[in-house]
């Protein structure tokens, strides 16, 4: 899974700590997601989507082979 989280977070001028607090996760979780080392749960993805006011599929991009 690819992610645009870092790019979108910067657009909204949020640092990792601020986003983490609003999404009710740790800063380390945001960092892992941005480095594409962690696939977020649906709940976390929805929270981030609402915070950034972006559709989930605009933040998290799945490769075709990941969906099979």
Automatic annotation (TrEMBL):
Keywords: DNA-binding. Coiled coil: none annotated. SMART domains: HTH_XRE. PROSITE patterns: HTH_CROC1 (PS50943). It holds the Pfam family HTH_3. Residues 5-59 form the HTH cro/C1-type domain. PANTHER family: DNA-BINDING PROTEIN, TRACRIPTIONAL REGULATORY PROTEIN-RELATED-RELATED. This is Helix-turn-helix transcriptional regulator. It comes from Solibacillus faecavium. The lineage of its organism: Bacteria, Bacillati, Bacillota, Bacilli, Bacillales.
């Amino acid at each position: 899974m690819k992610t645009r989280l870092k790019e979108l977070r910067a657009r909204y001028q949020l640092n990792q700590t601020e986003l983490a607090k609003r999404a009710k996760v740790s800063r380390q979780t945001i960092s892992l997601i941005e480095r594409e080392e962690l696939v977020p749960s649906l709940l976390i993805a929805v929270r981030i989507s609402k915070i950034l006011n972006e559709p989930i599929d605009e933040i998290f991009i799945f490769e075709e082979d990941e969906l099979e």
